[in-house]
Write a structure and sequence with these properties.
single chain, alpha/beta, 14 strands, EC 6.2.1.5, Succinyl-CoA_synth-like, Succinate--CoA ligase [ADP-forming] subunit alpha, succinate-CoA ligase (ADP-forming) activity, CoA_lig_alpha
Length: 293
């Protein structure tokens, strides 16, 4: 089983013909993803060869859907064009848009997230590594060769920590790993993924990775307390971050006592979540919890 992305997903890549789009399309194809086309109005009608597989380029998302039945899109377009790109996806009726691009203005993110939600399109990101269902499909930039299919679900604000936990727990494997991004305005949240993993019969345990800034982890803790029956193990990045300084992600900024790693840890632990002090300790806690009756 999996959440959001399966081997049946048909994926379009917006910005496929750019340098990043080309590189990661090749990697997604190698992971078994069914990439059915790219989107670039200036190169419509062409095909791009990826190690012997010819992938067509369409002039619009709607054309791509009509020709291929695509139901997922991965967005690699520059920040200035992301609002239009995601709006186009929502108008075309695609169910899942994975926005990899970073540096998108907040007002643009608010606009396209609101519009996508109104139209029933789930957005993962922006400024995220995407999501992977190991052995089935990969939509984004997550390395596909560092873990195996398994019984852990993972939701994370941090791309790098996603990869580390995937690797450290590779012998058990994952159902789906979702990198939700660390911008102030994102689409899919910790709570969305917790709900989906709770409903997935083959996910036995969830790893939740948070970081300083905002109150997403506190809200996730409240949701876990009332709605999640499966064990959850957490990690919060940023215990040593100086107050008032943005650390990596645009949303990772602490102001006074708000958004601190300590406050998030306490909220999660009060909901029964075991929280590791380091990624390696977090992996050890997962192993201990899975081994317990």
């Amino acid at each position: 089983m999996a959440i959001y992305l399966t081997q049946e997903s048909k994926v379009l890549v917006q910005g496929m013909t750019g340098a990043e789009g080309m590189k990661h399309t090749r990697r997604m194809l190698a992971a078994g993803t069914d990439i059915v086309g790219g989107v670039n109005p200036r190169k419509a009608g062409r095909t791009v060869d990826f190690d012997g597989r010819a992938v067509p380029v369409f002039g619009s998302v709607r054309e791509g859907i009509e020709a291929t039945g695509a139901d997922v899109t991965v967005v690699f377009v520059p920040p200035a064009f992301c609002r239009a790109a995601v709006t186009e996806v929502a108008e075309a009726g695609i169910g899942l848009a994975v926005v990899i691009t970073e540096g998108i203005p907040v007002h643009d993110a608010v606009a396209f997230q609101t519009y996508a939600k109104q139209r029933g399109t789930r957005v993962v990101g922006p400024n995220c590594p995407g999501l992977i269902t190991p052995g089935q499909a990969n939509a984004g930039i997550i390395p596909a060769d560092i873990t195996e299919p398994g019984r852990i679900g993972l939701v994370s604000k941090s791309g790098t920590l996603t990869y580390q936990l995937m690797y450290e727990l590779r012998d058990i494997g994952f159902s789906t790993c979702v990198g939700i991004g660390g911008d102030p305005v994102i689409g899919t949240t910790h709570i969305d993924c917790l709900r989906a993993f709770e409903d997935d019969p083959e996910t036995e345990l969830v790893v939740l990775i948070g970081e300083i800034g905002g109150d997403a982890e506190e809200r996730a803790a409240a949701y876990i307390r009332g709605h999640v029956t499966k064990p959850v193990v957490g990690y919060v990045a940023g215990f040593t971050a100086p107050e008032g300084k943005t650390m990596g992600h645009a949303g990772a900024i602490v102001s006074g006592s708000s958004g601190t790693a300590r406050a998030k840890q306490e909220a999660l632990e009060s909901a029964g979540v075991r929280v590791g002090a380091t990624p390696t300790e977090t992996a050890r806690l997962v192993l201990e919890r899975l081994a317990s009756p």
